[in-house]
Amino acid sequence: MNIRTDTIKTQVNKDKKIAQLFADVGFVSLCHTGEQLCGDNVEVVRSTDDTSTVIVLADGLGSGVKANILSTLTSRIISTMIASGLPLSEAVSTITATLPVCSVRGIAYSTFTIMHISSDGKTRIIQYDNPGVILLRGGKMVEFPYETRIIDGKSIRYSELTLEKDDVYLLISDGIEHAGVGVSYNFGWGRKDIAAFMAPYTKANFTAKTLATILSAETMRLYNGNVGDDATVCAVRIRERLQINICIGPPRNPDDCERMMSLFFSREGKHIICGGTTSSIAAEYLGKPIKTKLVYHDPDIPPTAEIEGVDLVTEGIITISRVLEYAKNYLLDNSSYEKWSYKKDGASLVARMLFEDATDINFFIGTAVNPAHQNPDLPIGFSIKMKLVEELIGCLEEMGKKIKVNYF
After folding, report:
1. Segment (H or E) for 54
2. How far apart are CA 211 and CA 209, in angstroms?
3. 66 and 34 Cβ atoms separated by less than 8 Å
4. For the chain, how many helices (H) and strands (E)?
């Protein structure tokens, strides 16, 4: 059999391009005024081999505790079943059997939107009674086709699309569309209004979480602060993968310094060094001087430094502690974004690189005990340092980052 080599190269390049795409997912929910729990729920399940991402936004009937339980059950059951490779019809049948139709209103106890992204660059979008998914491509709204499928008496919208770099998908509950009813808009703002509002932001290098935060903030404004219905937006931004490498602390065995640095600098992507001792080890390995800075962009965060061949050099424990603070807030309402999104202190620079730039993060963690941290007058100990780093890793994993950890 004769196969043209240029055809093979084209396919290899195509597969490589697809493999470099990453689904950045971020969501924000607004509770119905007077309720402590949101009746909407979002579940994101990524396969361990990084070949599949399942996103489910479920909207429970009503609001409060009951709606929260219904939407949580719906989203978790569907996401788990689809991520496990079970067919859509089986997942919908299970939900139908688990959550029957309300006898009073005659409607389903929970509606849902599913986005199933696979490693072949395709995505399936399945929608049941939620507002239609908004696709923004090149800063413009793109209407995509769907077919109607009847599963257990339910009318399901099914679509299959090919992903493109910089695509932004907005999955929303009806509380988003209802914003501004009788105030800014007669019948709320529709999908086209939402798309027109969000289009300019999709052209900037904002994360999915930030895009979701922007839309939820505008929704809150349209409600005049009095949210009349649970409102959730889940943004999915398709972007290229970018690897960040971060080294924190010297190795326990001093003889491992060269091995640690060799592995650290051999990795592709940007490199961050955190900690004074670690910086000295890196400078010695590279044969370059450390250029210290004296400018305090934030009075509570030590200044950064420079080493040729390193993208960012910061102080250690104080800086990482602030980054962890920002990471925890990012996973909530992202209100600290205004602080770290533009500032030039070490913590803000690390936060931008890890939260916004990185899709894959390699941690190189030295487990040597820093003598300075054993000072009884300082509230910092080795166990506290390790706990901070482990918490930060947990937060980054929750953001959807692919994490690898190397201990020395």
Report:
1. strand 52-60
2. 5
3. no
4. 12, 18
CA distance 55 to 91: 14
Tell me the C-alpha distance between 194 and 93, whole Å. Answer: 32
State the Cα–Cα distance between residues 155 and 127, nearest whole angstrom: 9
Contacts of 73 (CB under 8 A, 6+ apart): 98, 99, 110
Number of residues written out for the chain:
408
What is the pLDDT tens value at each position of the chain, 408 positions in all? 333 334 333 343 444 444 588 999 999 999 999 998 999 999 999 987 778 899 999 998 888 888 898 899 999 999 999 988 888 889 888 887 777 566 666 665 789 999 999 988 999 999 999 999 999 999 999 999 999 998 888 889 999 999 999 999 999 999 999 887 756 565 668 899 999 999 999 998 899 999 999 999 999 999 988 898 999 999 999 999 999 999 999 999 999 999 999 999 999 999 999 999 999 999 999 999 999 888 899 999 999 999 999 999 999 999 999 999 999 999 988 889 989 999 999 999 999 999 999 999 999 999 887 655 545 544 445 578 889 999 999 999 999 999 999 999
- Strand 270-274 to strand 243-248: parallel, antiparallel, or no bridges (unpaired)? parallel
Domain architecture of the chain: domains with CATH:
21-239 (3.60.40.10), 243-407 (no CATH)
Q: For residues 275 and 321, give the distance between their C-alpha atoms in angstroms, rounded to a whole number.
A: 12
d(CA 394, CA 363) in angstroms, rounded, equals 12
Strand 231-240, strand 168-172: pairing = antiparallel
Backbone torsions φ then ψ of 75, nearest 5 degrees: -65, -40
Q: Dihedral of CA 163/178/150/108: which sign? A: positive
First to last CA, the chain: 51
Q: Going by C-beta distance under 8 Å and a sequence separation of 6 or more, which residues neighbour residue 42?
A: 27, 29, 55, 56, 57, 58, 75, 171, 232, 234
Q: Vertex 195, ends 193 and 199: CA angle to 5°?
A: 125
How far is Cα 308 from Cα 289, in angstroms, rounded to an integer?
Answer: 8
Other C-beta atoms closer than 10 Å to the C-beta of 18 total: 15
Helix or strand holding residue 68 (H, E): helix 64-83
- Distances in Å between the alpha carbon of 80 and those of 1, 55, 62, 105, 241? 43, 10, 24, 29, 25
